[in-house]
């Protein structure tokens, strides 16, 4: 398994090839931080910082550099899904400035959509590995680890699967073959797999109807999926993953019980992933750390796998400084909670610019959920993350 610090570049500059011509984007991103790194009353740049938006001092320019040893800060690699309906080309494969920041800032990548069934297994017996390969290759070129997402889910399944008239035995074989093929293809190159995603609904019930696998094969199929994934890649850490499980609540309680049962049965379950799709209008889940800790106490790893923090958008579309500060506090507290729990060493943003975020598509009233402006300049949340990482070194 790769180690973040063994491959990343030093504070002085990039050693990587791709996108070096676009270092302006990263320079733009870190400019206010650099100003703060070298405070100088005579520096004319100091005067360019608007009142109330001074960036506190930070030692490092990038999240990956600021992170303590062995701690991974990730982002989803934007592509597929909602992007297909937008008036831009596939972000991950075509936007060089975006790729530059993705490489500079992060030590872990997650496939936003590219490893989901409908993309990687679009027809029965046909796989399309191109987009997923591109992510894994990019990650290796840039000294990043990869989180695989996902193998067993109720959503984004191809029509041939959902509409197919398969017997339970056939379905079981289809899932086994898929996991063997996909996990096997990337064996040794994926740090963590979200094996089962969102198998519990908003009423804290197992998705026995929506999820084709559980509906047709029973909850035991989840354990089998973990066993098959482990056989295909014994090195990969295998996770349960869901949203609205940040705090200790009815839904996370279901996972806590399930995790105990799986471990008692000797299932190769290694981690619990908390997605972290937060909104400032619903308050901060103050017991996140305790929740992560109780899973850690079972002997599991934990991770924040998809964080973003939505803001209710004002009419003029421009949240005020107070809203961004509140958002920054949510990001910072989530990161600090993870950093405080042993075995929580992966913290992934579900994108870092609003332009490519899923949030405005799903929540028309909310937005500004990411840590950077669309020109990659930092929001307070970015600086808050940088500071929290530095403080944990
Ligand atoms: O499948 C339909 C298709 O039938 C239809 O013709 C087409 C036109 O509107 O839409 C297709 O659905 C899209 C889907 O991706 C399929 O790829 C949705 O509109 C689109 O909004 C959806 O977006 C993805 C979403 O997962 C799907 O649930 C997002 O890009 C992706 O960021 C998001 O990621 C999820 C994680 O995987 C799991 N946790 C929550 C997170 C945010 O929703």
From TrEMBL:
Its EC number is 3.2.1.8. It comes from the Bacteria. It is an enzyme of class 3 (hydrolase). It holds the Pfam family Glyco_hydro_10. Residues 78-388 form the GH10 domain. Keywords: Carbohydrate metabolism, Glycosidase, Hydrolase, Polysaccharide degradation, Signal, Xylan degradation. InterPro entries: GH (IPR017853), GH10 (IPR044846), GH10_dom (IPR001000). GO terms for biological process: xylan catabolic process. PANTHER family: BETA-XYLANASE (PTHR31490:SF88), GLYCOSYL HYDROLASE (PTHR31490). This is Beta-xylanase.
């Amino acid at each position: 398994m790769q180690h973040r610090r063994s491959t990343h570049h030093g504070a002085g500059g990039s050693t990587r090839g791709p996108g070096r011509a676009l270092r302006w984007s990263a320079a733009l991103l870190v400019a206010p931080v650099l100003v703060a790194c070298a405070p100088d009353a005579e520096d004319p740049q100091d005067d360019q910082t608007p009142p109330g938006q001074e960036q506190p001092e930070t030692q490092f320019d990038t999240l990956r550099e600021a992170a303590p040893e062995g701690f991974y800060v990730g982002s989803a690699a934007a592509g597929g899904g909602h992007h297909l309906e937008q008036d831009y080309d596939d972000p991950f494969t075509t936007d060089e400035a975006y790729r530059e920041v993705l490489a500079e800032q992060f030590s872990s990548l997650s496939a936003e959509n590219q490893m989901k069934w409908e993309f990687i297994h679009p027809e029965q017996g046909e796989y399309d590995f191109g987009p997923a390969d591109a992510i894994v290759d990019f990650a290796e070129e840039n000294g990043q680890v990869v989180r695989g997402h996902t193998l067993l889910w109720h959503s984004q399944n191809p029509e041939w699967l959902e509409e197919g008239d398969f017997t339970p035995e056939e379905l079981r074989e289809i899932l086994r073959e898929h996991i063997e093929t996909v996990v096997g293809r990337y064996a040794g190159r994926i740090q963590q797999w979200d094996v089962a995603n969102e198998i519990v609904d908003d009423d804290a019930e197992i998705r026995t109807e929506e999820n084709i696998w559980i509906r047709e094969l029973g909850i035991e199929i989840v354990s089998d999926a973990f066993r098959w994934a482990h056989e295909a890649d014994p090195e990969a850490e295998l996770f349960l993953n869901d949203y609205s499980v940040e705090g200790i609540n009815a839904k996370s309680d279901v996972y806590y019980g399930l995790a105990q049962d799986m471990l008692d049965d000797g299932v190769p379950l290694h981690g619990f992933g908390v997605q972290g799709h937060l909104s400032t209008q619903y308050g901060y889940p103050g017991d996140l750390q305790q929740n992560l800790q109780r899973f850690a106490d079972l002997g599991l790893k934990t991770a924040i796998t998809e964080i973003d923090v939505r803001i209710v958008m004002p009419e003029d579309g421009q949240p005020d400084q107070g809203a961004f500060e509140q958002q920054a506090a949510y990001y910072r507290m989530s990161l600090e909670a993870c950093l405080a729990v042993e075995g929580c060493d992966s913290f992934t943003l579900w994108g870092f610019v609003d332009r490519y975020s899923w949030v405005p598509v799903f929540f028309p009233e909310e937005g500004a959920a990411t840590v950077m402006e669309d020109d990659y300049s930092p929001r307070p949340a970015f600086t808050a993350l940088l500071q929290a990482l530095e403080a944990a070194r």
